[in-house]
Design a protein that fits this description.
This protein has 233 residues and is mostly helical. Helices cover 53% and strands 11% of the residues. It has three domains: 85 residues, Methane Monooxygenase Hydroxylase, Chain G, domain 1 (Up-down Bundle), CATH 1.20.58.1030; 79 residues, no CATH class; 54 residues, Ribosomal Protein L9, domain 1, CATH 3.40.5.60. The strands form three sheets. A three-stranded antiparallel sheet has the order 6-3-7. The chain has a two-stranded antiparallel ribbon with strand order 1-2. Strand 4 and strand 5 form a beta hairpin. Helix 2 crosses helix 3, helix 2 runs parallel beside helix 4 and helix 3 packs antiparallel against helix 4. The chain is flat and about 70 Å long. Keywords: DNA replication, Nucleus. Pfam families: Sld5, SLD5_C. It comes from Trichoglossum hirsutum.
Length: 233
């Protein structure tokens, strides 16, 4: 362990939990927005954040009637910080929902229609499905069921039975749209990785050192992202 590691450990222990949670939430938000696939749901972090938001809202509502200028200024600061947390939570959850409801625009007579993109991939892949929170899984399951019922009533019922499935894989062509795991992403190395990272399909390999920033295919670093060795930026 070098001096940087020691200082990092000391700083981490001395940083308030609220600040660490804000940093973790910001990193999770950035990672979710740039990752081509849905990432694991940080349940403990979100539970603490939502509970903190609830307490802060109660505090603001309780003290809103106080006309003391000093107290009012304090409430302004609390409300500003509260809005920052609320924005991060909303944007984080919307980024996750967008991966279950990827937007494909069909423009017809001036009408924009949203069609689910990766819902079937998420629901039919156990390892990916396990990354959802209980409310997310319930929402995605019900939304997909409603969509399928709508498609069936609108036009699928007129098709032959063998063509009515939305997850058909006949003929070697899958109707399940999967995320592009070979998309390029920027990553920052958080911890040294002992084994060189081999780029699949090439003879190239790289050594990941703490602090390095690389642009690579997501599929090459997905396991390192899950293990916390690198972070998406």
């Amino acid at each position: 362990m070098d001096i940087d590691d020691i200082l990092a450990d000391v700083d981490g222990d001395s940083t308030p939990q609220e600040t660490r949670d804000l940093q973790a939430l910001t990193r999770a938000w950035v990672a979710e927005r740039v990752s081509p696939e849905i990432l694991a749901y940080p349940e403990a972090l979100l539970d603490r954040t939502v509970e903190r938001i609830r307490r802060q809202i109660e505090l603001v509502e309780t003290q809103t009637g106080n006309m003391d200028p000093r107290t009012n200024f304090r409430l302004v600061i609390i409300q500003t910080e509260l809005e920052r947390f609320k924005f991060l939570v909303r944007s984080f959850l919307r980024a996750r929902i967008a991966k279950g409801r990827g937007m494909v625009l069909l423009i017809r007579a001036g009408i924009h229609i949203q069609i689910d993109k990766h819902a079937l991939h998420i629901l039919t892949t156990p390892t990916v499905r396990a990354r959802l929170s209980a409310p997310e899984l319930q929402y995605l399951t019900q939304h997909h069921a409603l969509q399928h019922a709508h498609f069936l009533a609108s036009f699928l019922q007129n098709f032959p039975a063998q063509l009515q499935r939305l997850d058909d894989t006949a003929g070697g062509i899958s109707m399940i749209d999967s995320p592009d795991l070979d998309a390029a992403v920027f990553v920052r190395v958080l911890r040294d990785v002992e084994e060189p990272l081999v780029i699949a399909g090439t003879n190239a390999s790289v050594v990941l050192k703490r602090g390095d920033v690389w642009v690579v295919r997501y599929s090459v670093v997905s396991e390192l992202v899950a293990e916390g060795h690198v972070e998406l930026i």
